[in-house]
Structures are given as C-alpha cells and as structure tokens.
Amino acid sequence: MTELLTAALAGQRRALARVLSLVENGSEQSREWIALLYPHTGQAQIIGITGAPGSGKSTLVAQIAAEYRRRGLTVGIVAIDPSSPFSGGALLGDRIRMRALSGDPGVFIRSMATRGSLGGTARGTADVVMVLDACGYRRILIETVGAGQTEVDIARTAHTTLVIQAPDMGDEVQALKAGLLEIADILIVNKADQLGADRTVAILQAMLDLRDDPLAPTWRPPVLKTVAIAGQGTAEAVDAIERHVAYLAQSGRLRERQRARLANELQTLLREELLRRALAHIGSERYQALIERIISHETDPYSAAQELLREIQL
Amino acid sequence: MSDKRLRILIAKPGLDGHDRGAKVIARALRDAGMEVVYTGLRQTPEMIVEAALQEDVDAIGLSILSGAHMALVPRVLDLLKAQGMGEVQVFVGGIIPEEDAAALMEMGVRGIFGPGTPTDTASAFIRNSLSAPEQP
C-alpha cells in the first residue's frame, strides 16, 4: 500500500488519483499516509476561489490555471460541488469549463462533493490539498461550492482567497454585511463586460474605504475586473495573487494563517476522535435510552449531556 | 470509517450536440446516491480517459447519438487498458443498432441503454454491476 504512495510521490497520476480517493474517503490507512506525506508538504501556494453560483468561478479557475502554466508552474485544481441532502449523490460539473486544460500533464483536476459539509468545502478538502502539495503541484486552486454569505471555510484552508462577484448583485448595504466579502484577499468583478460592473467595483471600493484603518496599514484587497470567458484580466488576477503571496511572506501573516489553520485542523480531528471514543464508551443502547428520556421530557438536552460527561469522567 | 461512494463519469464523445440524455442519466444517478462527474459535450476519447483517471471513477457512461459509436467506444476501451484502468466499467447510452450492441458488449462494454430505458433500470443495473465486479 505504501507502494501506491511512493508511485504518487514519483508523479504517477493514476496512483495519485487513487491516494486522493482513499484520503477523501477517510479510510484508516489514509491517516498513516498523511503522516508520511506531511514532510513533503508546504511547497504549494493554496488559492481559494469562491463566489455565488454562476458568477464564473470555474471559468476563472481554468483561466488562472492556464496563466500559471504559461508561467511554468504546475497546477492542482480541487473543484467542489454540493452533495444532495436527500440522496447523498452529487453532480460534479466544474470540469465542463476546464476542457482547455485537458491533455496537460502539469495540471491535475479533481472534483469533490461536499458530503454533508456546509461551509463551502468538503471535510476531506484540506487532506486532498495536502496530497497534491506533496506530489509537487505548486499552485493549488480550490473552487468552493457556489457560495452565499456564510460559506467561509475556504479562508481557513487557502493562503489567498479570491471572492468573485458578478455585476449588480446588491447595494452598498449588502457589501457591508459580515461574511463572504470579509474573507476576500482579492475581489474580482467577473463578467465585467456587462452593465453595472463599474458600479459594483465602486461599491466594493467604498466598502473597503470604510474598513481600512489608516493607522494600521495592512493588505487592502485589490478590486479587479475580469471577463473570464474571454481570458480578460486573468494575468492581472494572477499578478495580484502573487503580490498577496509575497505580502503574506514578508509581513509574517503566512505563519499566522498557518498557525490558525493548523490549530483549527487539530481541533477538528480531536473533536471527531473524542466524540467517537465517547460514543463507543457510552454504548449506543445507553445513548438511545437517554434520547428517549429527552423526548419524553424526563430530562433536557443540556442535563443529558452533563450526565454523559460525568460518566466518561470529563 | 471509510465513506466510499460510487463515482461515475458521464461524458459525450464525438460531435453531436444532443446532451439531454446525458443530463437525464446524470441526474438519475445523482438521485440514486452516486457522485457523478459530468464533463459536457464534444469530448475526445483521450479527454474522457484522462478525466476518468484523475477522478478515479468506478465507471464511465458514454452517451452517443451520432452513429460514431463503433469508432469512439473501442478507442475509449483501448485507452483505458493502456492506462491500466481495465477495471473501470463502461456503459453506453444512445442510439445503438442491435448488431453493434452485440459487438460492443463483446469488446467489454458492460451495459447498453437505448431510448426509453427507465432511469431507475439504468441506475439499478449500474449499481449491481459495480457491486459485483468481475474477479480478475
């Protein structure tokens, strides 16, 4: 089984695809693999691309990838689409816009379903990115699901986050709301050949003016116009990403972000493992019985949780 | 605690532009709980096999209405074998004359779904076929 891992690290694409599946599925051995791969990671720049459904994420991702290829860098793409809350199935359609990248051995595209995650990425996304990083892809583009206002998990996984807007998606107050716009390192107004693009740029700039503190100069997200379908503005977008990458390194923010990301990851793993062990300790019969008591109002959810915690001595 | 799901690539090789059938089956497989990678129109066999490789799919569904199935399907099968992906099952949907269907099955296609096949039938067939893979 480590043969597969060695083959993936040596650039064998079929082996890489296999490893990605096992890691995505969270199989037992994938934990050991992550441990083996981890020393090889840390070389890639991880770039998140998020925005509303239909704003042009897939098309822009394909264009950014092509631009990076022109600059001689290898590109991994992780494209995420939602799983059905009913059937658990998914229709992963992001590759449709990426056909121009076909046949290039310097590009590896992988589609992922969210499998119940609500934050815009999948639970396995960080691990899949880690594998691509270890296998030598230098720029990794993560395309989130079509995002609304609160799918902000991408900012924890990516070094640089691009938020894409289409023209005329809302007024000044929309731009002031908390959430998606706050996580942008770069703001893109795509479909900029359409009516209202300049107004959208102005609204976003005004939002940034209100946010900026002149006494604490930090990174001000550039607002760029693109027409992704025609390839317009993508070179400038890639320039902006690279400027942000340089800024992160110089300012020490990269370390800060890595610390936050890894702390978050460790916490997630701990939470899952603790829950698994706790439930195993309690036993499903006892657990179900307690749920019954809550249903019949003999106890309440908070007291029930405390009761269980006392039992496992936490 | 492995969370394995069936992954299927639905592709339209060749030049005909009628993708309604492909979309209907993609949707049906989605509703049957599978993860469907949909690649869209005008895919070459090379593009299809490359996508199948990167996505590590269990099966490929090809929708062909142009009449070019006797050229396109064997090419996909050959490329799969060349990549060491012979275990990836191939299904074909579309307008396939009976004598061609027999020849395609002979070449290794697992199932052929003509017009009017109920989507439940197709998804159940694919699921059964994938849960009982041929022993090498």
Protein model, in words:
The complex is a heterodimer of chains A (314) and B (136). Chain A has 314 residues and is an alpha/beta fold. Chain A folds into three domains: 1-39, no CATH class; 41-251, 3-Layer(aba) Sandwich (Rossmann fold), CATH 3.40.50.300; 265-311, no CATH class. Chain A has twelve helices and eight strands. Chain A has helices at 2-9, 13-24, 28-37, 57-70, 125-134, 154-157, 172-176, 197-211, 234-251, 253-282, 284-295, 301-311; strands spanning 45-51, 75-81, 90-92, 107-113, 139-143, 160-165, 186-189, 223-225. In chain A, helix 1 (2-9) crosses helix 2 and helix 4 packs across helix 9. The longest helix of chain A has 30 residues, at 253-282. The model of chain A has no long low-confidence stretch (mean pLDDT 89). In chain B, strand 1, helix 1 (20-31) and strand 2 form a beta-alpha-beta unit. A five-stranded parallel beta sheet of chain B has the order 2-1-3-4-5, sandwiched between helices. Chain B has one domain: Cobalamin-binding domain (Rossmann fold, 3-Layer(aba) Sandwich), CATH 3.40.50. The interface between A and B is medium-sized, with 32 and 32 residues. Strand 3 of chain A pairs parallel with strand 2 of chain B.
Strand order of the largest sheet of chain B: 2-1-3-4-5
* Global morphology of chain A: globular
Average pLDDT, all residues of chain A: 89
If classified by CATH, what would the architecture of chain B be? 3-Layer(aba) Sandwich
Proportion of strand residues of chain B: 15-25%
Question: Outline of this structure?
Answer:
Chain A is an alpha/beta fold. Chain A has twelve helices and eight strands.
Chain-wise SSE layout:
The complex is a heterodimer of chains A (314) and B (136).
Chain A: H1 2-9, H2 13-24, H3 28-37, E1 45-51, H4 57-70, E2 75-81, E3 90-92, E4 107-113, H5 125-134, E5 139-143, H6 154-157, E6 160-165, H7 172-176, E7 186-189, H8 197-211, E8 223-225, H9 234-251, H10 253-282, H11 284-295, H12 301-311
Parallel strand pairs in A: 1-5, 1-6, 2-4, 2-5, 6-7, 7-8
Chain B: E1 7-11, H1 20-31, E2 35-38, H2 45-55, E3 59-64, H3 69-82, E4 89-94, H4 98-107, E5 111-113, H5 119-131
Parallel strand pairs in B: 1-2, 1-3, 3-4, 4-5
Helix pairs in contact in B: 1-5, 2-3
